[in-house]
Amino acid sequence: VLRVDVARPVAEIQPTMWGVFFEDINFGADGGIYAEMVKNRSFEFFKPLMGWKVDGKKRTEGDVLVQNRGDEKSSNPRYLRVTTNGAVAGDLSLTNEGFRGMGIKKGLRYDFAVLYGYPSAGKVTMQLNLLNAQNEVIGTGTLSPDATASADRDGQWHKAQVSFTATATEPKGKLRIGLEGTGVIDLDMISLFPEDTWKGRPGGMRADMVQMLADLKPGFVRFPGGCIVEGHDLEQRYQWKKTLGPIEDRQLLINRWNFEFGHRPAPDYFQTFGLGFLEYFQLCEDIGAAPLPILNCGMACQFNTAELVPMSQIDPYVQDALDLIEFANGDVSTQWGKVRAGLGHPKPFNLKMMGVGNENWGPQYIERLAVFQKAIKAKYPDFKLICSSGTDPNGDRFDYLNGNLRAMNADLIDEHYYRRPEWFLQNVGRYDSYPRNGSKVFAGEWAAQSDDVAKPTNKNNWQCALSEAAFMTGLERNAAVVQMASYAPLFANADGWQWTPDLIWVDNLHVYGTPNYYVQQLYSRNKGTNVLSMTANGQALAGKDSLYASAAWDKAASEIILKMVNVSGKSVNRTVQLDGAKKLARTGTVMLLTNDKLDAVNSFENATAVSPVEQQIPVDSNKKTVAMMLAPRSLSVVRI
Ligand code: AHR
């Protein structure tokens, strides 16, 4: 018999308990959730024409030149100068290959836009063609930029746009721009977006990917990473102020994951920041999640250059943090609140927390963090800071950091663990002995690994997901200590990943949730408000007979929530006694996630092979018991 003490909740469960970790890794942002289809739209990649092909029957030397304005426009120095000399169809074209192709959907509208200027008199017409993988035309538009607009004359660039509809569906499409007429035209920010973005916002996000996040009902979204916060070196660190305003002014950066890591080199991986900090905050607001930005603490990635800013020069980093709080929360009379309002969001975002550093360690980290802590707490005493404890949950580095962070009264300590499924089962009780007072824990990045990180053989299989489900009973039981948790990484593009496993997989047209996704979803949507004690012979159920369990009370719904995991290959029967329950319904609901094969996975072809099914279960409301048959290799979430 398992006893649940319904009358005496043991701890609160924070609304932020289960959240998501977003990073532009695996083409999660550019080439992923940011719906821009043109790769290298502003010619700022390290090779200016990467992603582009210049073609035609009558091309001549110099008819397409990359111009570089250098410091005159340091955020976006390059553009294309195209010369057409009586060009007709087929004479000259530019073709963009997209991010591993472009996903094109039949009947959907596509919005093309370009910045242009005529340095001299002339008239150039653009014939736009969507192409399928066989180079057949599956969508057509025409654009005749106004020939009187001269960048040289008025010092301005002009925007031209046209929309057209695709006639066929294609996963690996391209965009061809035929250039016709006589003249010289300058082109920049060549862009193509689908009509069906999230909330129909022009220049917005892929709706199917955002929907997957919304369906999790996450308590928070951590952004923008991960290692990309740190950068290869400090020059290439993430700087939120550079991600605001007109997209043509957002200075692009080489992505920290643009290198041969694991098995998929990505020389074409850059951050254009079309998904910038305003958009991240907006995303959080849209899906009802608390924003959790992470900022660079004056240290570059310690797995790379380990570059440090000298302590004498740390002030701008700290100022960035203070300004971000004002940007998110300040009213329009403040400098940064005014900036936010000017960007179209006068309402504050109610930011309550921020991470300082990601996976940074050593005395250098503690020294830098202390400066942030002092400055931020002086101005915003209730603001919570998330502090890094590195990547080694059982090692000396962790002990050193944890000791120091506790001593400095860190609000939350960010622990990361990418480990085998066995580690997760063995560590279900990890937080049972953590002190209840002082610093809390943010389990900020973790995922069970079926093989070494980033190997193609490292799978999101049911064994990994099941071990995570068991581990999460331990997190929930210890909600007095663990206040936030997020699986990582979140997204992966099947054609462009650097890291496995990942919670949600996408290609240009589709998206599916892994078994791990459904585990996260079951926890997040059935979070409850208070931990209840659930014991077998007075002990928490944490591995005995291969069973793991936790219980919660949901104040708003007046419901008891049980989470029970059976990792054995046999079904197990247990009676759950609901001690102290005042009045019980005669039936409860069970959401069952199970598969008899530990190597079972979801896929584009079978997206819901491992996904929850809902059943009703009888409850003995007189005896206050429920008889549970726990299927082999299963997670059961019960609401009564
Ligand atoms: O989640 C992938 C990477 O793992 C993150 O960028 C980093 O923080 C960790 O090492």
TrEMBL record:
It comes from the Bacteria. InterPro entries: Alpha-L-AF_C, ASD1_cat, GH, Glyco_hydro_b, Glycosyl_Hydrolase_51. One of its GO terms (biological process) is L-arabinose metabolic process. It catalyses: Hydrolysis of terminal non-reducing alpha-L-arabinofuranoside residues in alpha-L-arabinosides. Keywords: Glycoprotein, Hydrolase, Signal. It holds the Pfam family ASD1_dom. One of its GO terms (molecular function) is alpha-L-arabinofuranosidase activity. Residues 444-634 form the Alpha-L-arabinofuranosidase C-terminal domain. Its EC number is 3.2.1.55. PANTHER family: ALPHA-L-ARABINOFURANOSIDASE 1 (PTHR31776:SF0). Belongs to the glycosyl hydrolase 51 family. This is non-reducing end alpha-L-arabinofuranosidase. It comes from Spirosoma rhododendri.
